[in-house]
Each structure stands twice: as structure tokens, then as C-alpha cells.
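Schema walk-through. Below, the input block comes first and the output block second. Nothing else is stored per chain. Lengths vary across the set, and this one has 225 residues.
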Amino acid sequence: MILPRELGVMTLSGATLFPNALLPLYIFEPRYRRMLADALNSHRLFCVAMQKPSCTRETPEPVAGLGLIRVSVQHQDGTSHLVLQGLTRVELGATSRYRPYRIQQIGELVTSLCASPEVDALAGRVRELFAERLDLGRPLLLPAGASGAETPPLLSSAAVAKEMLQCVAALRNPEHVADMIASTMLPCAQERQALLAAADLRERLRLLARFLMADIHRCRQNGGS
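--- output ---
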């Protein structure tokens, strides 16, 4: 993938954009209205980065999601609703400008070690934990882009859970397995960010398995979801 040298960056509290995930956004701030207009008039791309929790000033995490604007609807008051599709992980470099919106240099964060018996075994374990956690009643997450909430809204439906299990079972790429489960199962923003930033696939799968096991343990201690 050939990426622009620099792109606009939207910083949201608790938000992560994984590759292939869809993120609905409500654009109302003047700076992001301008960023959206510029993106629609060019490459239809911008980055979504999570705000560093420990910082009071706007400070994006160094690894973000690069998104493609799939649908954008502008309203009469100048606000817009859009759907952003995650394309890849990017590392944020130097800030080129701050106004009217933040633009930073970017570089693709390529996943390493995508195929090995160890990776396949880890992906199998993650699938098992995903199924176990769903069976214990964990609702799936809906994207939190509109509000940037720390914990995304939840979607509780046996039919949706069954469909997600089928989707994960059909995936052959362990990287896609990890990203789909991370984006739909983990309510903790810091855990999602850790998985977004993990370039080594083995480490990403190990982290995901650890987070899922901890969530399963908490669920069992609490006697439910």
C-alpha cells in the first residue's frame, strides 16, 4: 500500500480503529469539518488515534488506525455522519501543523511473522477463548467513534454472537482473527490500543489471549457477564 507522506489525525478518547473494522463518526467540531472536507476532496483518508490517557492536552498515541471514508452524509448545519473503514496500522511521526487540524507524518506499521505453526496454534487458542467468552454472555462491542467514550456501547444478541463465531471460524489469516476479536470483544481501551500497537503477530495473539483469559476469569468470579 502506497500511503501519503502525511495525513490529518483525529484524536479521540478511548477510540481505536483496527484494519477492516468500520467506525461510524459524527463530525461536528469546526477543525474536523475542515479535515473531512479536505479528505473528501482528495484521497478520502485520515487517521484515528487514541488520546493518551495520562495527558490533559491533546496527545495522540504513537500508533493509530488509517481509515478510508466509505460513506459521508453532510447535514444542513454543517455537521456530518460518516463511516470510516480501517485500512492499516500507522506510526505517527512529526507533526507538520496543528491548525486548523493536526497533520502528522505517517508510516505503515507492517505486521511481522504472519505464518508459522506457533502463530496458527495461538490463533486457535484465541478462537477458543472468544467462543468461551461469548458463551459466558459477553456482549459484542459497537464502535465508539461518535462519542469517543472510554467503553463502547454493547450489542447483546444470540444471533449476532453466532454470526460472529461463524465469521471468526471462516477467517484463515491469523492477523484478521486477532483484529476482529480485539475490535469486537475488548471493552478496555488500553487493551485495544496495546493490540493495535503490537507489530509482532505472536505478541499480539499472546496479549489477546491473556486479555480474554482475564476477562473470562472476572466473569466467572462475578457469576455472569
